Amino acid sequence: MSAAIEPESFTPAASACPACVAAPSAERMAQLAQPAHARLMLSLPTAHCAACISTVEQAVARLPGVESARVNLTLKRLSVEADPAVTAPQLIEVLKGVGYEAHELDPGLLSATETDRQGRDLLMRLGVAFFSMMNVMLLSVAVWSGAEAATRDMFHWISAAIALPTVIFSGQPFFRSAWASLRVGRLGMDVPISLALILASSISLFETIHSGHHAYFDAAVMLCFFLLLGRYLDHRTRAVARSAAEELAALEVPRALVLVDGAEVLRPISEVAAGDLVRVRPGARMPVDGVVEDGTSEVDRSLLTGESLPVYAGPGTVVSAGEVNLTGPLTLRVTAAGRDSSLHRMADLVAVAESARTKYTTLAERASSWYSPLVHLLSFSAFGFWMWKTGGDLRYAVNISAAVLIITCPCALGLAVPAVVTSASGRLFRKGLLIKHGTALERLAQVDTVVFDKTGTLTMGTPEATNLADHPRAAVEVAAALAMASAHPLATALAEAARAAGIHPARVEDLREVPGYGVEGLWKGQRVRLGRASWCNADEAPVTATYLCTGEGRARAFTFTDRLRPGAEAAIASLTAQGKAIRLISGDTSGAVAALAARLGIADWTAGALPAEKAALVRDLTVAGHRVLMVGDGLNDTAALAAAHVSISPASALDAARTASDIVLLGQDMAPIGDAARISRQATRRIVENFALSAGYNVIAVPLALVGLATPLAAALAMSLSSITVSLNALRLK
Questions:
Q1: Catalytic annotation present for 116
Q2: N or C: which end of the chain has fewer CB atoms below 10 A?
Q3: Minimal CA–CA distance to 518: which of 538, 504, 541, 497?
Q4: 3-state helix, strand, coil in the chain (%, to 5)
Q5: Element holding 239 (H helix, E strand)
Q6: Domains of the chain: residue spans and CATH
Q7: What 3-state class would DSSP assign to 653?
Q8: What's the pTM value of the predicted model, to 2 decimals?
């Protein structure tokens, strides 16, 4: 008989759940089925510079089991390759230790690719067109200098060998777009562009085959280059980030700890159903909507409702997916999970608003609705007239028709908007604003009402102690000692204020945090507490406060205010001076909202607003005929940001809020928002001026082409001159 196995001689592998310890063989089979590494994705909303990248990557790389960690600063994301035993909560705790807020993302709900393929494709085609244009122009100089007969034909054939593949390759964006327009019976701006490219190339090839004196390959390639330049500028100004609805969906916690016969089992959220019991540990986000069955804690709802302070959560409290459990473990009875959760319903609201945003079109697109048919009418009319006038000279009639089409080609029209937006975007970027959407400046110029969120937008979202000097030093020392034992926002703010004042904490022993109430300990042998008014037998103050009771007299109230964001007063003063109506809407309490409104001189304010109510307010204002600018930063603002006529978010905002917005405020100072409203009106004036320049150019040039005084090459040069003029006018914004 084999010897008995001693208990310590067998150590099961680390298990995903306590129940699996009893079945090591099953656990090992499961481990064999698992991939060698797991990929975890986290959002890093506060990462902003190269130093952040190295700090985050080094901190995560030190965690056992982590194979690699990479930060994408543009997307503010951390991608981690690690052993399956490494969990997202562990990474979040590590990042919290080095000062970075992090949220787990579900990689399966994010786009498979996030690279700017279209931008790279346009840039590649632009480079090919530029290279070809330079070479064909050099060959054309030889022809213009007097090359004759076989020499001229040789240069034309070499030019054809360069130009024709270039037009076919580089003109693909226009050809595809034109074909898509024609298939649905519409004359888009790319139809005359494509016809001009095809006609210029075809006529040149025809002339080359028949040893003609003139070929216009240089005109075709030059036309292609300038058109691609306009298209690339337009693309850069339209480089809108990923869908905010997608980002919101990815913020949903992908797994939950479900209680099965008293044991915690980690399950995908898709397998969690209403009625299940779910355990949520301190520091974790709520994976589901539910009701607290057991435990007491405080819940941070700022991302969803904008409430600046945590709220008490105990048996019977209703909680929502996305809220953060702060101090104590909670057991929830699930009421909704996955697609039925409040967080997912918010994502649906954003998706609806984003689809409505696509109805906005640029001024150039609206102008092209009448411009394109007119261009074709002129070109075909010229062809018909000269066929009749010359008695059927197809060669001459096609040349004039092509010249009309090229000279009226909407290159300047296509550059009118992107050139101005690029110039204005550069100016605003230097002021600390990043324009994400191509139509954002046009829409911002139309705004007459500005709606601000409070927490994290007009304020920094962090409490600041206000009356430390009103208390005896000994009381502050005790309060500081208690505050340092808690992660509650008010406790953290109190501890920081004490350190800044040079106050050292008292010696307090037996420190213990009571979830939902506060911190207590022993000081000089007597019980002292820091926390809620009811817990400290104190009367509730009319302002945000935490209370200290030491057993010596009445409890002392340490009061706080939300720190105002720099430049908030200047931004509101500037917008008011420009004649815009200002409104404040927040999910915070009436007292906090009223105090801030009075401080900033905002007469119209709303408190206690839910995310859907914020979006409804923006929609109601829109229905009433107002053009709304929404400025917000949290998940609770995302639907309103997407529904507004135009929207702005601080760089410190959650990823979902930034992706839903049109403009991102890069720094903490809000003063540039007033500048943006002013510059947007200037940009709109420049766009209108560019349209006028383009129209004036056509008034002069088109008659010359119609009467046969402009060859296709001269038409291409004139078109290029108009494009340069439009670009120079746009640069006046700088």
A1: no
A2: N
A3: 538
A4: 50, 20, 30
A5: none
A6: 1-33 (no CATH), 35-105 (3.30.70.100), 123-239+359-419+684-731 (no CATH), 253-340 (2.70.150.10), 431-460+565-681 (3.40.50.1000), 462-564 (3.40.1110.10)
A7: coil
A8: 0.56
Sole residue written with tokens 């397998």: 271
Structure tokens at 497: 């204020």
Q: How far apart are CA 16 and CA 146, in angstroms?
A: 83
| CA–CA gap between residue 427 and residue 433 (Å, rounded) | 9
d(CA 479, CA 477): 5
Q: Do 139 and 133 form a contact (C-beta atoms < 8 A)?
A: no
Cα–Cα distances (Å) from 158 to 147, 204, 218, 441, in that order, read: 14, 12, 12, 45
Average pLDDT over residues 688-703: 79
The active-site residue, picked from 276, 289, 300, 453, is 453
Residues 553-611 have pLDDT tens digits of: 788 999 888 788 888 999 999 999 999 999 999 877 787 788 889 889 999 999 888 78
What type of residue is 603?
A: A
The string of pLDDT tens digits covering residues 209-246 is 888 777 778 878 887 887 788 677 666 654 443 445 55
Residue 242's pLDDT is 41
Structure-block tokens of residue 60: 């995560």
Local structure of 578: helix, strand or coil: coil
Taking 90 as the threshold, does the pLDDT of residue 450 lie above it?
yes
Q: What is the mean pLDDT of residues 516-521?
A: 87
CA distance 689 to 680: 14
pLDDT at 75 over 70: no
Residue type, 733: L
Give the closest residue to 309 by CA, choosing from 475, 454, 498, 500.
Answer: 454
Dihedral sign from CA coordinates of 469, 471, 474, 478: negative
**Backbone conformation region of residue 625, classed left if phi is above 0, alpha if psi is from -120 to 50, else beta:** left
Instruction: Inform me whether the pLDDT recorded for 414 exceeds 60.
Output: yes
Q: Are 702 and 404 in contact (CB under 8 A)?
A: yes
Nearest-angstrom CA–CA distance, 420 and 174: 22
Grade residue 638 by pLDDT with cuts at 50, 70 and 90.
confident
| pLDDT, greater one: 404 or 733 | 404
Mean pLDDT over 434-439 rounds to 72
